[in-house]
């Protein structure tokens, strides 16, 4: 795993209970991961190349 992808996964592990979510690769964002909870809501967690940090976006209603 590359360093930035590892940081994305660490962020996810720090903010979620892993057995309560599904994680899929989401290649439209750098090192993107699509997170789906038990209610079916989704968000994308990814590496922001502009700011050099993990960032995320929630699904739009």
State Rg.
11 Å
Largest sheet: 4 strands, antiparallel
Structural class by SSE content: alpha+beta
Tally the beta strands. Answer: 4
Tell me roughly what share of residues is in helical segments. Answer: 10-25%
What proportion of the residues form beta strands (DSSP E)?
A: 35-45%
Low-confidence stretches: none
Assign an overall shape. Answer: globular
* Cross-sheet strand order for the largest sheet: 1-2-3-4
Q: How do the SSEs run, as a string of H and E?
A: HEEEE
How far apart, in Å, are the first and last alpha carbons?
Answer: 33 Å
Total tally of structural domains: 1
Mean pLDDT: 95
* Count of helix runs: 1
Helices and strands, with pairings:
Layout: H1 3-15, E1 21-25, E2 33-37, E3 42-48, E4 53-58
Characterise the protein shown here.
With 61 residues, the protein is an alpha+beta fold. 21% of the residues lie in helices and 38% in strands. The chain has one helix and four strands, in the order αββββ. A hairpin with a 4-residue loop joins strand 2 and strand 3.
